[in-house]
Amino acid sequence: MIYTVTLNPAIDVSLHVKDGLMPGSVNMSYGMRSDPGGKGINVSKTLKALGKESVVCIGFCGEDGDRLLKSLEKDFAVLGVNYPSGNTRTNIKITGGNGVTTDVNAEGPLYDRESVEKLKKLISGNLKKGDIVIISGRPPLGSPVDIYADLIRKFSETGGVKVILDCSDRYLQAGIDAVPFAVKPTCDELGLANDPDSAFSEAFNIISEGVSWCLFSMGREGAVFTNAARERFYSKAIEVKVNCTTGCGDAMTAGLAYAMDNGMSSDDAFRLCMALATAAAETEGTTPPSKERVMELFAGIPFCGQ
To answer: Would you call 151 exposed, middle or buried from its count of C-beta atoms within 10 A (0-12, 13-18, 19+)?
Structure first.
Protein backbone atom coordinates (compact mmCIF):
# COMPACT_ATOMS: atom_id res chain seq x y z
CA MET A 1 0.00 0.00 0.00
CA ILE A 2 1.04 3.59 -0.61
CA TYR A 3 0.44 6.19 2.11
CA THR A 4 0.58 9.95 1.46
CA VAL A 5 1.15 12.20 4.47
CA THR A 6 -0.06 15.82 4.35
CA LEU A 7 0.16 17.49 7.74
CA ASN A 8 -1.04 20.87 6.43
CA PRO A 9 -3.68 20.17 3.72
CA ALA A 10 -5.76 22.77 1.94
CA ILE A 11 -8.71 23.66 -0.20
CA ASP A 12 -7.20 24.75 -3.53
CA VAL A 13 -9.15 27.43 -5.38
CA SER A 14 -7.96 27.81 -8.99
CA LEU A 15 -8.67 30.93 -11.04
CA HIS A 16 -7.74 31.96 -14.57
CA VAL A 17 -7.12 35.48 -15.82
CA LYS A 18 -7.06 36.37 -19.52
CA ASP A 19 -3.48 37.63 -19.62
CA GLY A 20 -0.89 37.57 -16.87
CA LEU A 21 -1.74 38.60 -13.31
CA MET A 22 -1.61 42.42 -13.01
CA PRO A 23 -0.55 43.46 -9.47
CA GLY A 24 -2.22 46.56 -8.08
CA SER A 25 -5.21 46.36 -10.43
CA VAL A 26 -8.56 44.58 -10.70
CA ASN A 27 -8.10 41.17 -12.35
CA MET A 28 -11.22 39.53 -13.80
CA SER A 29 -11.13 35.76 -13.49
CA TYR A 30 -12.95 32.91 -15.18
CA GLY A 31 -13.05 29.13 -14.83
CA MET A 32 -13.01 28.99 -11.04
CA ARG A 33 -12.74 25.53 -9.46
CA SER A 34 -12.15 24.13 -5.98
CA ASP A 35 -10.19 20.95 -5.21
CA PRO A 36 -8.81 19.11 -2.18
CA GLY A 37 -5.20 20.28 -1.97
CA GLY A 38 -1.87 19.79 -0.31
CA LYS A 39 1.07 18.00 -1.87
CA GLY A 40 0.34 14.54 -0.50
CA ILE A 41 -3.30 14.75 -1.56
CA ASN A 42 -2.21 15.75 -5.07
CA VAL A 43 0.04 12.69 -5.11
CA SER A 44 -2.88 10.44 -4.15
CA LYS A 45 -5.05 11.92 -6.90
CA THR A 46 -2.36 11.19 -9.47
CA LEU A 47 -1.84 7.65 -8.20
CA LYS A 48 -5.58 7.03 -8.50
CA ALA A 49 -5.50 8.24 -12.11
CA LEU A 50 -2.74 5.67 -12.72
CA GLY A 51 -4.86 2.92 -11.17
CA LYS A 52 -3.09 2.75 -7.80
CA GLU A 53 -4.77 2.73 -4.41
CA SER A 54 -3.39 4.93 -1.65
CA VAL A 55 -4.27 5.96 1.88
CA VAL A 56 -4.52 9.71 2.50
CA CYS A 57 -3.09 10.71 5.90
CA ILE A 58 -3.99 14.25 6.98
CA GLY A 59 -4.39 16.66 9.85
CA PHE A 60 -7.36 19.01 9.55
CA CYS A 61 -9.39 21.54 11.54
CA GLY A 62 -12.31 23.93 11.29
CA GLU A 63 -15.30 23.87 8.96
CA ASP A 64 -13.07 23.84 5.88
CA GLY A 65 -11.31 20.80 7.31
CA ASP A 66 -14.59 18.93 7.70
CA ARG A 67 -15.47 19.81 4.10
CA LEU A 68 -12.06 18.61 2.93
CA LEU A 69 -12.40 15.33 4.83
CA LYS A 70 -15.84 14.59 3.37
CA SER A 71 -14.56 15.32 -0.12
CA LEU A 72 -11.57 12.99 0.28
CA GLU A 73 -13.58 10.13 1.77
CA LYS A 74 -15.53 9.86 -1.49
CA ASP A 75 -12.41 8.63 -3.29
CA PHE A 76 -9.83 7.47 -0.73
CA ALA A 77 -9.28 5.63 2.50
CA VAL A 78 -8.35 8.35 4.99
CA LEU A 79 -6.36 8.33 8.21
CA GLY A 80 -6.93 11.72 9.80
CA VAL A 81 -6.67 13.63 13.06
CA ASN A 82 -8.54 16.80 13.97
CA TYR A 83 -6.24 19.55 15.19
CA PRO A 84 -7.69 21.33 18.25
CA SER A 85 -7.72 24.87 16.84
CA GLY A 86 -7.28 27.00 13.75
CA ASN A 87 -8.52 26.60 10.20
CA THR A 88 -7.56 24.37 7.32
CA ARG A 89 -5.81 26.39 4.64
CA THR A 90 -7.42 27.86 1.54
CA ASN A 91 -4.87 28.31 -1.25
CA ILE A 92 -5.46 30.51 -4.31
CA LYS A 93 -3.89 29.56 -7.66
CA ILE A 94 -4.09 32.23 -10.39
CA THR A 95 -3.01 31.22 -13.90
CA GLY A 96 -2.71 33.70 -16.76
CA GLY A 97 -3.01 33.14 -20.48
CA ASN A 98 0.78 33.27 -20.57
CA GLY A 99 0.92 29.97 -18.62
CA VAL A 100 2.38 31.55 -15.47
CA THR A 101 0.74 30.48 -12.18
CA THR A 102 0.81 32.69 -9.07
CA ASP A 103 0.12 30.96 -5.73
CA VAL A 104 -1.24 32.69 -2.63
CA ASN A 105 -1.14 30.14 0.18
CA ALA A 106 -2.75 30.62 3.59
CA GLU A 107 -0.87 29.63 6.73
CA GLY A 108 -3.22 27.06 8.25
CA PRO A 109 -3.24 25.79 11.85
CA LEU A 110 -0.46 25.83 14.40
CA TYR A 111 1.56 22.69 15.15
CA ASP A 112 0.00 20.47 17.81
CA ARG A 113 2.37 17.80 19.08
CA GLU A 114 -0.28 15.44 20.44
CA SER A 115 -2.22 15.44 17.17
CA VAL A 116 0.86 14.76 15.05
CA GLU A 117 1.93 11.96 17.40
CA LYS A 118 -1.54 10.44 17.10
CA LEU A 119 -1.39 10.48 13.31
CA LYS A 120 2.14 9.04 13.35
CA LYS A 121 0.94 6.11 15.47
CA LEU A 122 -2.10 5.56 13.24
CA ILE A 123 0.10 5.32 10.16
CA SER A 124 2.90 3.22 11.68
CA GLY A 125 0.32 0.82 13.14
CA ASN A 126 -0.89 0.02 9.62
CA LEU A 127 2.47 -0.31 7.83
CA LYS A 128 3.67 -3.61 6.40
CA LYS A 129 6.77 -4.73 4.52
CA GLY A 130 6.70 -3.40 0.98
CA ASP A 131 4.60 -0.33 1.78
CA ILE A 132 5.58 3.13 0.56
CA VAL A 133 5.11 6.33 2.56
CA ILE A 134 5.25 9.75 0.90
CA ILE A 135 5.85 12.75 3.17
CA SER A 136 5.41 16.05 1.38
CA GLY A 137 4.66 19.74 1.70
CA ARG A 138 5.16 22.23 4.51
CA PRO A 139 4.18 21.15 8.02
CA PRO A 140 1.95 23.32 10.27
CA LEU A 141 3.31 26.59 11.61
CA GLY A 142 5.60 26.17 14.59
CA SER A 143 6.59 22.60 13.74
CA PRO A 144 10.00 21.46 15.00
CA VAL A 145 12.71 21.29 12.36
CA ASP A 146 12.99 17.51 12.76
CA ILE A 147 9.26 16.78 12.37
CA TYR A 148 9.74 14.91 9.09
CA ALA A 149 12.99 13.31 10.21
CA ASP A 150 11.13 11.87 13.19
CA LEU A 151 8.40 10.47 10.91
CA ILE A 152 10.98 8.94 8.57
CA ARG A 153 12.75 7.16 11.42
CA LYS A 154 9.47 5.91 12.87
CA PHE A 155 8.11 4.57 9.58
CA SER A 156 11.47 2.98 8.72
CA GLU A 157 11.24 0.86 11.88
CA THR A 158 8.92 -1.39 9.87
CA GLY A 159 11.35 -3.36 7.73
CA GLY A 160 10.92 -3.04 3.98
CA VAL A 161 9.04 0.28 4.10
CA LYS A 162 10.31 2.92 1.67
CA VAL A 163 9.86 6.61 2.48
CA ILE A 164 9.82 9.37 -0.16
CA LEU A 165 10.41 12.94 1.05
CA ASP A 166 9.31 16.03 -0.89
CA CYS A 167 9.66 19.21 1.16
CA SER A 168 11.86 22.30 1.42
CA ASP A 169 13.87 24.57 3.67
CA ARG A 170 15.25 23.30 6.98
CA TYR A 171 12.78 20.40 7.01
CA LEU A 172 14.40 19.02 3.87
CA GLN A 173 17.94 18.88 5.23
CA ALA A 174 16.82 17.41 8.55
CA GLY A 175 14.78 14.84 6.61
CA ILE A 176 17.75 13.90 4.42
CA ASP A 177 19.79 13.29 7.58
CA ALA A 178 17.17 10.68 8.57
CA VAL A 179 17.93 8.83 5.27
CA PRO A 180 14.62 8.33 3.44
CA PHE A 181 14.67 6.02 0.43
CA ALA A 182 14.07 8.88 -2.01
CA VAL A 183 13.94 12.68 -2.12
CA LYS A 184 12.30 14.92 -4.73
CA PRO A 185 13.05 18.62 -4.13
CA THR A 186 13.34 21.38 -6.69
CA CYS A 187 16.69 23.01 -7.33
CA ASP A 188 15.22 26.26 -5.99
CA GLU A 189 14.41 24.53 -2.70
CA LEU A 190 18.03 23.46 -2.45
CA GLY A 191 19.37 26.90 -3.33
CA LEU A 192 20.80 25.61 -6.61
CA ALA A 193 20.87 26.98 -10.12
CA ASN A 194 18.50 25.24 -12.51
CA ASP A 195 21.18 23.44 -14.47
CA PRO A 196 22.02 19.72 -14.70
CA ASP A 197 25.63 19.99 -13.51
CA SER A 198 24.71 21.73 -10.26
CA ALA A 199 21.80 19.36 -9.71
CA PHE A 200 23.84 16.20 -10.29
CA SER A 201 26.61 17.40 -8.01
CA GLU A 202 24.22 17.96 -5.10
CA ALA A 203 22.30 14.75 -5.85
CA PHE A 204 25.50 12.72 -5.59
CA ASN A 205 26.21 14.37 -2.24
CA ILE A 206 22.81 13.26 -0.99
CA ILE A 207 23.27 9.76 -2.38
CA SER A 208 26.55 9.54 -0.46
CA GLU A 209 24.55 10.12 2.76
CA GLY A 210 22.57 6.92 2.15
CA VAL A 211 19.54 8.08 0.15
CA SER A 212 18.84 5.63 -2.70
CA TRP A 213 16.98 7.78 -5.27
CA CYS A 214 17.26 11.52 -5.97
CA LEU A 215 14.96 13.31 -8.40
CA PHE A 216 15.49 17.07 -8.75
CA SER A 217 13.00 19.11 -10.77
CA MET A 218 14.15 22.28 -12.50
CA GLY A 219 10.87 23.70 -13.83
CA ARG A 220 11.14 24.72 -17.47
CA GLU A 221 14.72 23.38 -17.52
CA GLY A 222 13.57 19.78 -16.96
CA ALA A 223 14.81 17.37 -14.29
CA VAL A 224 17.65 15.08 -13.26
CA PHE A 225 17.62 11.69 -11.59
CA THR A 226 20.33 9.59 -9.98
CA ASN A 227 20.46 6.62 -7.65
CA ALA A 228 22.71 4.57 -5.39
CA ALA A 229 24.12 2.82 -8.47
CA ARG A 230 25.27 6.27 -9.71
CA GLU A 231 23.11 6.13 -12.84
CA ARG A 232 22.48 9.62 -14.27
CA PHE A 233 19.45 10.67 -16.27
CA TYR A 234 18.49 14.10 -17.54
CA SER A 235 15.63 15.42 -19.66
CA LYS A 236 14.65 18.85 -20.80
CA ALA A 237 11.05 19.90 -20.22
CA ILE A 238 8.57 19.09 -23.00
CA GLU A 239 6.85 22.05 -24.65
CA VAL A 240 3.08 21.80 -24.17
CA LYS A 241 0.21 24.22 -23.65
CA VAL A 242 0.36 25.01 -19.93
CA ASN A 243 -2.91 25.44 -18.05
CA CYS A 244 -1.57 25.28 -14.48
CA THR A 245 1.84 24.32 -13.10
CA THR A 246 0.57 23.67 -9.55
CA GLY A 247 0.84 19.96 -8.83
CA CYS A 248 3.46 19.14 -11.47
CA GLY A 249 6.06 18.32 -8.83
CA ASP A 250 3.51 16.21 -6.94
CA ALA A 251 2.83 14.28 -10.13
CA MET A 252 6.55 13.49 -10.31
CA THR A 253 6.51 12.28 -6.71
CA ALA A 254 3.57 10.02 -7.57
CA GLY A 255 5.66 8.68 -10.45
CA LEU A 256 8.45 7.69 -8.07
CA ALA A 257 6.01 5.78 -5.85
CA TYR A 258 4.33 4.11 -8.84
CA ALA A 259 7.70 3.06 -10.25
CA MET A 260 8.83 1.62 -6.89
CA ASP A 261 5.58 -0.26 -6.42
CA ASN A 262 5.81 -1.75 -9.92
CA GLY A 263 9.53 -2.56 -9.93
CA MET A 264 10.25 -0.30 -12.90
CA SER A 265 13.79 0.27 -14.13
CA SER A 266 15.47 3.55 -13.22
CA ASP A 267 15.26 4.98 -16.73
CA ASP A 268 11.58 4.11 -17.09
CA ALA A 269 10.88 5.55 -13.64
CA PHE A 270 12.45 8.83 -14.73
CA ARG A 271 10.55 8.85 -18.03
CA LEU A 272 7.31 8.28 -16.15
CA CYS A 273 8.00 11.16 -13.77
CA MET A 274 8.69 13.51 -16.66
CA ALA A 275 5.58 12.39 -18.53
CA LEU A 276 3.43 12.88 -15.44
CA ALA A 277 4.75 16.39 -14.77
CA THR A 278 4.18 17.39 -18.38
CA ALA A 279 0.65 15.97 -18.48
CA ALA A 280 -0.18 17.63 -15.16
CA ALA A 281 0.78 21.03 -16.58
CA GLU A 282 -1.90 20.59 -19.24
CA THR A 283 -4.74 20.07 -16.74
CA GLU A 284 -6.91 22.59 -14.90
CA GLY A 285 -6.11 23.28 -11.24
CA THR A 286 -4.76 20.21 -9.49
CA THR A 287 -6.76 17.82 -11.64
CA PRO A 288 -4.59 14.75 -12.27
CA PRO A 289 -3.68 13.85 -15.85
CA SER A 290 -5.23 10.85 -17.58
CA LYS A 291 -3.20 7.67 -17.76
CA GLU A 292 -3.68 7.61 -21.53
CA ARG A 293 -2.08 11.05 -21.94
CA VAL A 294 0.77 10.12 -19.60
CA MET A 295 1.56 6.99 -21.62
CA GLU A 296 1.43 8.98 -24.85
CA LEU A 297 4.01 11.41 -23.51
CA PHE A 298 6.08 8.62 -21.91
CA ALA A 299 7.06 7.30 -25.33
CA GLY A 300 8.43 10.66 -26.47
CA ILE A 301 10.43 11.97 -23.53
CA PRO A 302 13.61 13.71 -24.81
CA PHE A 303 15.68 11.49 -22.55
CA CYS A 304 19.41 11.67 -22.00
CA GLY A 305 21.37 9.17 -19.92
CA GLN A 306 24.74 10.49 -18.77
So the answer is: buried
Count of domains observed in the chain: 1
Q: What is the DSSP string of the chain?
A: -EEEEESS-EEEEEEEESSS--TTS---EEEEEEEEESHHHHHHHHHHHTT--EEEEEEE-HHHHHHHHHHHHTTSEEEEEE-SSS--EEEEEEE-TTS-EEEEE---PBP-HHHHHHHHHHHHTT--TT-EEEEES---BT--TTHHHHHHHHHHTSTT-EEEEE--HHHHHHHHHT--SEE--BTGGGT--SSHHHHHHHHHHHHHTT-SEEEEE-GGG-EEEEETT--EEEEPPP----S--TTHHHHHHHHHHHHHHHT--HHHHHHHHHHHHHHHHTSSTTPPPPHHHHHHHHTT--EEE-
Stated pTM of the model:
0.90
* pLDDT for 306 beyond 60: no
The CATH number assigned to the domain holding 301 equals 3.40.1190.20
* Domain carrying residue 266: 2-305
- Summarize the confidence of residues 1-20 as an average pLDDT: 91
pLDDT digits (tens, 9 = 90+) for 192-205: 888 899 999 999 99
